[in-house]
Write a structure and sequence with these properties.
Layout (H helix, E strand, L loop, with lengths): L10 H17 L11 H8 L3 H5 L3 H5 L18 E5 L5 H10 L4 E6 L2 H13 L5 E5 L12 E7 L8 H11 E10 L9 H4 L2 H4 L2
Parallel strand pairs: 1-2, 1-4, 2-3, 4-5
Helix pairs in contact: 1-6
Length: 204
Amino acid sequence: MAIACPVDLDTQKLRFEVSNIYSRVVAEPEGQFHFHRGPGYAAEFLGYDPEELAALPAETTAAFAGIANPHRIGAIRAGETVLDIGCGAGMDLLLAARRVGPTGKAIGVDMTDAMIERASASALAAGLGQVEVRKGDATSLPVESACVDVVISNGVINLVPEKQRAFDEIVRVLKPGGRLQLADILLDVELSEDTRRNIDLWTG
């Protein structure tokens, strides 16, 4: 089974298209997209606590576009350092920040300027000074080696063409004994070459 994207895939175009779509999500969370969004979806279908979501800025939860709930995989503890890869508007990131508390740290990484701005503003509005949002992507994380207790990510690794590089980066930044709480899309069939070259399908 193929585990890599075609070598001739235009990865720069792919990144541009992904960034463009999620910039639109920030600007128009109620717009027409081919994926679900918002706090109602997160609570009803993915098992998020609606009371916890209600405590976050509405602008952040409205732009949530994850596919599962990495927080259900394991507890995030006070004082830990958490890294959210592809943090988007920051819903999972802010939930993690509330769990680690003021003695911990929650780092979000995203490649979309609009998402970075929204996540940063929401952390400020929520009074979560332990949040830091950095620009970058999964294949080159702007994070020191061996400094993270927990890596979380929600529906992002499937958008990355260089998946081995992404997992190498996760291993690099985790402390010995660190944890990965990954929520993502998996396929149990091999996709055709034509399908794997289709940028439109990658951006979903």
